[in-house]
Every structure is written in structure tokens, then in C-alpha cells.
Specification:
394 residues, alpha/beta, two-stranded parallel sheet, 13 helices, 48% helix
Length: 394
């Protein structure tokens, strides 16, 4: 029999509004506790990253990228646990057996970046005492190899109410306290065959990919049947409407084929998207879900370019500070300072896309420039400054 067996860990947790956040007490780069000991003042509470990011707009497959970003600033750390430890309620690849944890400062950072105002207020209310007590904590290391669990005897395994908020929500199993020491180089041939049976929560990129792959395989099987059905329809129907539908379907299939081969080209995607938009968005702009989704995506992309545009505008102002009243024409300013896609959208929206409207376009470019200045919160022309100041004073 091996010196140790697989030890299931159930992390304590507390409620922060609708969010349940699990945590541990970090003792040093190799050990941790699941319960707080009043005599261990050096213990640092660390909060499970998967719980912190739950119910946010960040997709699960993007969590590792965000964890790495906060880890560079010392707010998060990847704890690589010994194979002796398994996690109740968590699904972790056995090859890595690691979890991301955040300091209280990191939790606050995420909350104020991603949570709603009401959730931010709840975090402040529930965790301000913890934040104050840990204000002088050092930045976290990028990762730590954890092999030892340290807990006191059963008598003082349950922390006092004033040491951590909402401790009444702890699982009663936490009162079972055992001191464990695990050697990462050992394995336990006597343990049960399936060591991942308690892993029922997908929180890492690898698991997300496996789930997606199974979904793709199921979809491909269904796609084969649909392609056979398409062939029968092609033979039985021969009209203009049916022909257009098949052209659209073929364009989408070409895009799928290119994506799977890794040769997806932007021009092919563009053609497929435009055809799909023309097919689906033929009705009213008031009721088109696809058109609304495209508009939302486009707006987000344009909003994301704001910092880049601001840098260009500032450089332009420095360069032209001596002749600010003698600026280039509106069309030249718009082309120099704003993305072409923004101008294309507005020109078509204003009905100035046709070459026959060149003269009208030239006369209305100052209006287009003004719209771009306001939309990007970057004022360049005198008209923009005057109008903006009069608007915000009302």
C-alpha cells in the first residue's frame, strides 16, 4: 500500500450576492489550509478564479488569458497541486491538476472590471474587512507547487465568524481535519481506477475544447445526413429561389471547409456573410435579429479602436498646433484620423456611396467628420468643440 491515497478536497465557500466563491488559505509556496487558525496570522486567503469569473461576459475558453493577465500584475497565481489531491465539484485535467486563485486585491480588480454596479457594491460590503486586513500582502508568484495540506485539530477547525464573511455557508465536511503530506513523484496503485470521478465542473480550456470537439463530431454526423437531403432536393426542385438557396449553402460549406483546413480567407468569409445577410435580412430593419447582432459586433469593434484613434488625434493636434484654424479639408481629416470602415458605414448610411454623388459627398463630408468626432469622443474641428460644449451645458 502506498504511503498516501487520493485525498478529496472540498473548498470552503461563502456567498457574495448570487455568486458562491470558494477559497483556501495559502500558508507558503508549498502548503495550504482549508480552515483558519487564529495562531496562523500569516495565512493569506486566495479565491478560486473559476468562481470569480462565473456569470460574467467572459467565455470559459477565454478565462486562461484573463488569469495570465492578472497574474502578471501579481493578483493571481496558478496553484499546481500534488496528484494526491483531487477536488470535489471541480473538473481538472489529471495531467495538470492546477487551479487559478486570486488574492483579495485581485478579486476586487475583477469585480470592478467585470461586475455590475450592484455586484460591486455587494463585494465591497461583504469583503471590505478582508481587504483591509490583507492590504499589505505581497504580490502573488506566477505559480506554486502545492504538496502539503496543513490543518489544526478538529477542536478549532471552524473559524470564528469575524474572521471571514459568511462562514456559516461552509460545508460541514470541512470540520474533518487531517494533516496531509503528498509527494508529487509518487503514485498510488491501490487507489480506485477512475480518479476523475469527482471532477464534474469544467473550468479549464482543455476541458472546454474536449466538449466542443464532441459537439463538432455530433454536428458533422448530422451534416452528412443533411447533405444527402440537399442532393435529393436539388434533383427534385429547379427554380430561381431554390438555386439561390443552394448558392448560399455552398458558400457556407466552402467557409466551413476552409476553416477546418486552416485556409479560411477573409474574402471568402466576406462573400458568405454578405450573401447570408442578403438572404436573411430582406425584411424590416426593425425586426432583424441578424442585422442587430452584426450592428452590435461592429459597434464593439469600433469602440475597441478608441484608444488607437485617440493616439492618432493627439499626434495630429501636436503636429498642427501652430495652424489649428487652418486645418485640411474634412474628407482628408476623416481619412487620416478615422478607420476606413467607419467612413464606409457612414457614407452608405447617408446615401453618399454612389460615385454620382461626388459633389454632394464633398459638401456633406464636414457633417460626416463631425459625427465621427462625436462618436469617438475625439474633438478636432472648431465646430465640434463649439457644438459639444453647447450640448453638455444644456
Amino acid at each position: 500500500m502506498s504511503a498516501w491515497s487520493i485525498t478529496p478536497l472540498t473548498f470552503p465557500q461563502f456567498d457574495v450576492g448570487p455568486r458562491k466563491i470558494r477559497f483556501i488559505y495559502f500558508a507558503n509556496p508549498t502548503s495550504f489550509r482549508l480552515t483558519r487558525c487564529p495562531k496562523k496570522s500569516a495565512l493569506v486567503p486566495l479565491y478560486l478564479g473559476a468562481d470569480i469569473f462565473s456569470n460574467t461576459d467572459i467565455r470559459v475558453e477565454n478565462h486562461p488569458r484573463y488569469h495570465a493577465k492578472f497574474a502578471k500584475k501579481g493578483y493571481a497565481t496558478k496553484l499546481i497541486f500534488s496528484p494526491a489531491f483531487r477536488f470535489d465539484g471541480l473538473r481538472v485535467p489529471t495531467t495538470t491538476n492546477s487551479l487559478w486563485f486570486y488574492s483579495i486585491q485581485g478579486l476586487f480588480r475583477v469585480a470592478f472590471e467585470l461586475y455590475s454596479k450592484q455586484e460591486q457594491l455587494t463585494v465591497m460590503d461583504k469583503l471590505q474587512d478582508v481587504w483591509k486586513s490583507q492590504i499589505n500582502d505581497s504580490p502573488l508568484e506566477l505559480n506554486c507547487n502545492i504538496s502539503i495540506r496543513l490543518d489544526s485539530e478538529v477542536g478549532d477547525s471552524i473559524p470564528e465568524m469575524d474572521e471571514e464573511p459568511n462562514e456559516e455557508s461552509l460545508n460541514p465536511r470541512q470540520s474533518r481535519v487531517v494533516e496531509e503530506s503528498a509527494d508529487a513523484s509518487q503514485t498510488d496503485p491501490g487507489s480506485s481506477g477512475d480518479t476523475s470521478a469527482d471532477h464534474n465542473y469544467c473550468s479549464l480550456e482543455e476541458q472546454s475544447f474536449e466538449t466542443q470537439l464532441k459537439s463538432i463530431q455530433t454536428t458533422l454526423s448530422s451534416l452528412k445526413l443533411r447533405l444527402q437531403s440537399l442532393e435529393k432536393k436539388r434533383c427534385s426542385e429547379d427554380n430561381a429561389d431554390c438555386t439561390q438557396k443552394f448558392k448560399t449553402a455552398l458558400l457556407l460549406l466552402d467557409s466551413i471547409d476552409g476553416c477546418l483546413d486552416g485556409n479560411l480567407e477573409e474574402k471568402h468569409v466576406t462573400q458568405a456573410v454578405l450573401t447570408l445577410l442578403g438572404t436573411v435580412c430582406g425584411g424590416s430593419v426593425y425586426s432583424s435579429h441578424l442585422l442587430n447582432s452584426v450592428a452590435r459586433w461592429l459597434g464593439q469593434r469600433f469602440h475597441g479602436a478608441n484608444s488607437c484613434i485617440s493616439q492618432k488625434v493627439e499626434s495630429f493636434k501636436v503636429e498642427h498646433i501652430e495652424r489649428i484654424t487652418d486645418l485640411p479639408p474634412a474628407d482628408q481629416l476623416a481619412t487620416e484620423l478615422f478607420p476606413e470602415a467607419m467612413q464606409t458605414l457612414m457614407l452608405h448610411w447617408m446615401g453618399l456611396s454612389d460615385e454620382a454623388h461626388q459633389a454632394k459627398r464633398h459638401s456633406e463630408y464636414p457633417i460626416l467628420l463631425l459625427i465621427l468626432e462625436f462618436a469617438n469622443h475625439n474633438l478636432i474641428t472648431g465646430a465640434a468643440h463649439v457644438l459639444y460644449s453647447s450640448l453638455i451645458c444644456r
